[in-house]
Every structure is written in C-alpha cells, then in structure tokens.
Amino acid sequence: MTRPLLPIWSLAAPCVAAAVLAGQTPVPSHEPASRPRPAQTKPPAPLKPLPVAFVNGAPLLADRLQAAINEVMPYGVYHVGASPERVAEIRKQALDRIIDEELQYQEAKRLGLVAPKAAVDREYARVRRRYKTEADYMAQLRRSGITQADVRTEAARRALIGLAYDREVAPRCKVGESEARDYYERNESKFLMPEQLHVFTLTVGVEPAAPREQWEAARKKAEGLKAQIRSGADFEALAREQSTDPNRDKGGDLGYVHRGRLAEEFERALGDARPGALVGPVETIYGFHLLRVADVRPPVQRSFADVRERLEKDLEDRKCQESRGAWLRDLRSRATIVIPDAVPQGSAPGTPKPPVR
Prior knowledge:
Blueprint: E1 51-55, E2 58-61, H1 62-72, H2 75-81, H3 84-110, H4 117-128, H5 134-144, H6 148-168, H7 177-186, E3 192-193, E4 196-205, H8 212-230, H9 235-242, E5 253-258, H10 264-270, E6 278-284, E7 287-297, E8 300-301, H11 304-333, E9 337-338
Helix pairs in contact: 1-3, 3-6, 4-6, 7-11
C-alpha cells in the first residue's frame, strides 16, 4: 500500500516554486514573503497576490492557485488555447485542490503532528531530482526569487500532509487475502484472459489526403504482395522490405494481442481467423494492411493465486481513494471556506461570498 503522490505544485519543473511564485512563502501557505528586488533608485511596489479562498480564516493566495492550474494545463495553453468553459472548469478543479491541501495541512497541525527530518529530506529530494544538475536547480531558484530554505519549508508542509494521510487514511486501506478472494469469487469473469492472436502485419501506407489514384495504386500493391505470399514468399521478409509500419524491422510482428485490443478494422477482418490465416488487404486511414495469424491462444481463466498480489493492490488503491474522499468530505463539513469575489490583480479583495461547505 503506497501513499498517493502528493503534488508539490510550488516545486514542480519547469518552475521550482510555482506555488510560491510572486513571493509567497510556502508555510504558512497564506503569508506573503518578500522577494529580492533589483537594484533601483525607486523600485516599483510589487503587487501582492490576492486571496482566492479563505480556509478557516487562512487565506490561499492567487499564486498558489496559478501553480495548481499549471499542473493541470500549461500556462500558455490555459490562457490561449482553452475555451472559457474549460478555463473555468480547470480553475475550479485547481481551487478545490489547494483548498483540500490546506485542510489536510491544518488537520496535521491540529493533530500535533511533527514531520521528522528524514520525511522532509525525502520531499526535498523529490524536488531536487527534477533537475539534472545543481547549477540548473540553483538557476531556477534565482529566476523564481526564492531560496533553498523556502523550498525546504514547502517540503516540510508536504511531509506534514503525508503524515496526516498516513494516520487518517492509510489504516483503512488494508485488504487481506480473504477480502481479495471474496471479490475474486464474485467477479470471476473479470479474470478471464480473452483469446490471444499472434499477429504479423504488412502495411502499404498512404497519406490520408492523397488522391484516389494513389489509394488505388496502394491497394493493387497490397494485393500483389498478398499473391506473392500465397505463392510461397516469406511474409516477414516482405514486411521488412515493403512495409511502411514502424514494426517492419521485426518482420511486422505485433506479438500476442488480446481480442478486442486491435484496431476496429482489424478485429472485423480477423473474425474467427485460425493459425496460418492470411487476411487483407484491410483498409484503414493509414493505407492497406495484410495480416497473418501465426498462433491463437484460447481464453484462459486466471486463478486466484495468479492474480492475488495485483488484485490486493488494486483493491487497496480503491479503498484508499474512497477513504481519502470520505476524509476530505469530513474536513470540509467542519470547515469554514469562503471564496472572495473575483477582483483585478493588485486591488483590494472583494466582499466574501457565503461559506461554501
């Protein structure tokens, strides 16, 4: 059972401190920090990031929200390539995300949890590993206007949230053999491995926008290659010489593929094909394909022993998701969450809306 990977928005590449960009100190998440200023006679007063939510009175600032948004969609795409509806949806998802994070952080503090140095070191190391060299890492820190201490403070926050998860959620995730076996016996059909086909392909590729004459020429070429194979030519050798597929270097070998996993056109063409069958030409948007079935493996019912380890892991992951969801809903039910009205960057916050619970 593993704890879900906690997003460190403020520390994710390419921006080391997206959640503390514009000078926000990571912990507490709602206290702005000063940034180094370039040497100027009269430096302009920096705009302070505005609160986008208040969680039990603690403000979450716009820079942390933007960092969470950037985790979902890169900055340029968010502002240029997305519809207003999609932008609003992403913003809501990101806002919910940072509110949930703050709730977990506050719960960890309420419980009196203290992150040991080793846990903070692990979180810090996760950030540092995103950069190839120390020079790259330090350069990004300078560009972001933060220090290693800021990054470590955010790492400590992440470690605290992890401790709260380990205390409140992880104990509810465990799945034993009896529970896994019961699930298996009630869902045996889910563990039936479908028929598998060992398929080889030979493709005569055509550009989708090519004129019909090129498509007809490609069809005739594929039919000619099929005739050669039927006359004794080696399929794999022809695939290496004539196919336009990336797998031509392997003689067109796709390996064993489960029924239902191939392209729809291939599935229809193969039907109930048996070993040795040569099928095609099959037309797709990529051109014309010849298919050879080298072997067929019948369906196999996988035993509980075969699937036990993976099944227990999958069930534990599901229980963790459900338990974490229940925990967050409980935290929200006991919290006062206020979303201020939207206001321009740099102006005073608007009148808070009624609490959203």
